Amino acid sequence: MSKHLVVGAGLIGRPLAGRLAARGDTVTIATRSGSAAAGATALVLDASDPAAFTHAAANASTIFLCTNPPYTDWAAQWPPIYEAVIAAASATGARIVVMGNLYSYGSPTGAMTEHSSETTTEAKGLIRRAGWAKLRAAHDAGHIRAVEVRASDYFGPGATGTAHLGEAFFTAVLRSKTAHVVGKPHLAHSWNYLPDIVTTLIAATD
User: What pTM value is reported for the model?
Assistant: First the structure.
């Protein structure tokens, strides 16, 4: 039985914690507010505090970094979170699995792979690219073990709020009302099913 620290209780962190607990693992889910998840122990955590993060990760085999600060706060909040998770993993030996996105790729002209160039010039993409670069450098130096799982826009159980293919979209469709989509409807767009993202995050620990 493994012990995991899941940081963030959103549409990915909460079902991830529940899936891990359901298979018999010991799971702590950490957020600023102490949000709960089925089968997991809830913990109040400021993820930008290295000492608190290290304490929360004690004896954990994996830290799943699934938090996502408000977009307007990324520049202030993401850099210290990256620093804190590196400090926690360095001190405890826990591996890091980061829930990432595609922002760092910018505007590619073809299919994206893990080897695609990260060409973004947009502020949010630069923040995420810099954060992963810091984690990757620490990984390559042998100080931590880290991997990032990247996904596009998602859909599936619990996809509400700001999800582009979520409750608002399907409610409109089912009522024969106008449903708004992200981007241009006639262009191809990649979507990721939330349970598949959870499965991939868990697989990334192997």
Answer: 0.92
